[in-house]
Write a structure and sequence with these properties.
The chain is of the alpha/beta class and about 475 residues long. The chain has a domain of about 260 residues: Aspartate Aminotransferase, domain 2 (3-Layer(aba) Sandwich). It is about 45% helix and about 10% strand. The strands form two sheets. A seven-stranded mixed β-sheet has the order 1-7-6-5-4-2-3, with helices on both faces. Strands 8-9-11-10 form a four-stranded antiparallel β-sheet. Helix 5 packs antiparallel against helix 14 and helix 14 crosses helix 16.
């Protein structure tokens, strides 16, 4: 007799109830700060406690087994909802996005091909249309959601390559193409240049100020040098905001320069484009509408679980030109609303549903209030600490990211000591070759009490 491979719906329901119960307790503990913000035991030790080898080999997990497993699993890791989570630029997911992940986990509609997920694709169309309007691209723009900002930047660079060298898809990349970017640009820009066949050496560093922002006044000299050497700029990349510092480039000045000089203008708005939703902060993105392409990660400041990033172009045909696929089992006749022709991925999760449900629950205004609140909390940290003895801040924060130093000790060592006992989760970054501590305010639970506690802990660490 063949085993029954269909779902046992009753067992699924029981397991789903376990999942909701355990996750609700996890988020509640995290938001109240009753557990460490992170644990990072060695993999072998954790694998043994989770009994991973046994479960992989034998199977047979029941809902009760799953409850015990999930309890251990959730206890070990990083609690993004915790007020002391001030680390990486990962969204603290809102529960509507979590519901979307649950729906996708059950339905699994890979909607890059419309017939495989009409509802999911339609939701993505509307979410992208909303994002295009926010950026200011209007009715002629186009876009697609991808699994992360690195893929989004790669896709935008493919569109730029197609505009600069239309035959590159079939004939290869011309050796005279270069990419203009600041040293502070996200590493995925250099990675994209290498993947596209330009090579890392084709990335020409732009002149910047002491904080890594593009110096728009010095762009003519850089472009003149490139063209006199017989090379062509494929694109110029600006940051909104820089990953390390959270500072914005002067998007309008750079955009006007690119327009006059016929250079593809790309804005990496992975983290900072969400400030478009905040009345108090959208001025930081003045000029973004001049871009030829923009990326915008929902899994950073739109409270959407990983991954969901948008590639947006001012002229829709530019995105369609990025790829020139042939696959007889997919591309034949008029397929109408397929997205596979404008994305790296063929199988694509129901990414738009996560963004849509967050918007449907919180509204555009609610999302903007979240962004504003996180930006203002980072600014509050700067206000609380800038005049305290031993603290140095290289700039006044513009976003929810702020870098600082305390004393003369090894700043990376200070970070490690804060993380060793799970008290705080910080990151670090270099500015002008000098290592700084880095706070990124992501959790809604982070408040003045958290910030004061962090400052106190930093000053009381041994050798800090």
């Amino acid at each position: 007799m063949q085993p029954n491979m269909t779902w046992d719906v009753k067992e699924f329901t029981r397991a789903a109830e376990v999942t909701v119960d355990e996750l609700a307790a996890y988020v509640d503990q995290s938001q109240r700060g009753t557990a460490p913000v992170l644990r990072r035991r060695p993999p072998r030790e954790l694998a043994d406690e989770l009994e991973l080898a046994r479960w992989i080999s034998e199977g047979g997990m029941t809902p009760d087994d799953f409850r015990r497993f999930l309890g251990v699993y959730l206890r070990e890791g990083t609690r993004l909802h915790h007020s002391a989570y001030l680390g990486h630029q990962s969204a603290v997911p809102d529960f509507p996005a979590a519901l979307a992940d649950f729906v996708h986990g059950a339905t699994n509609n890979p909607m890059a091909i419309y017939e495989m997920g009409a509802s999911a694709a339609t939701v993505e169309f509307e979410v992208v249309r909303w994002m295009l309007a926010k950026v200011g691209f209007g009715a002629g723009g186009g876009g697609v959601l991808t699994h992360g900002g690195s893929l989004a930047n790669l896709t935008a660079m493919l569109a730029a390559r197609a505009a600069a060298a239309p035959d590159a898809w079939t004939e290869g990349v011309p050796r005279d193409l270069v990419l203009l970017a600041a040293p502070s640009a996200h590493y995925s820009i250099t990675r994209a240049a290498a993947i596209l066949g330009l090579g890392e050496r084709a990335v020409v560093p732009l002149e910047v100020d002491g904080l890594g922002r593009i110096d728009a006044a010095r762009l003519p000299a850089v472009l003149d040098g490139v063209r006199r050497s017989g090379r062509r700029p494929m694109a110029l990349v600006a940051g909104a905001c820089a990953t390390g510092t959270g500072l914005y480039d002067d998007l309008r000045a750079i955009g006007e320069f690119c327009a006059v000089n016929d250079v593809w203008y790309h804005v990496d708005g992975a983290h900072g484009a969400s400030a478009l939703l905040s009345d108090a902060h959208r001025h930081l993105l003045d000029g973004i509408e001049l871009a030829d392409s923009v990326i915008w990660d929902a899994h950073k400041m739109l409270r959407t679980s990983s991954l969901a990033a948008a590639v947006l172009v001012r002229r829709e045909p530019d995105l369609d030109a990025a790829f020139q696929q042939q696959a007889s089992y997919l591309f034949y006749g008029d397929q109408g609303f397929d997205l596979a022709g404008r994305a790296v991925e063929c199988t694509k999760a129901e990414l738009g549903l996560k963004i849509f449900l967050n918007l449907a629950w919180r509204g555009e205004r609610g999302m903007g209030e979240y962004v504003a609140r996180q930006y203002e909390t980072a600014h509050r940290f700067w206000e609380l600490a800038r005049n305290r003895p031993g603290f140095e801040f290289p700039y006044e924060p513009e976003s929810n990211i702020v870098c600082f130093r305390y004393g003369t000790a090894d700043q990376a060592a200070i970070r490690e000591r804060l993380m060793d006992d799970g008290t705080f989760h910080l990151t670090s970054a270099e500015i002008g070759g000098v290592r700084h501590l880095r706070v990124t305010v992501m959790a809604p639970a982070t408040d003045d009490r958290t910030l004061d506690s962090l400052l106190h802990h930093v000053t009381t660490l041994p050798s800090a």
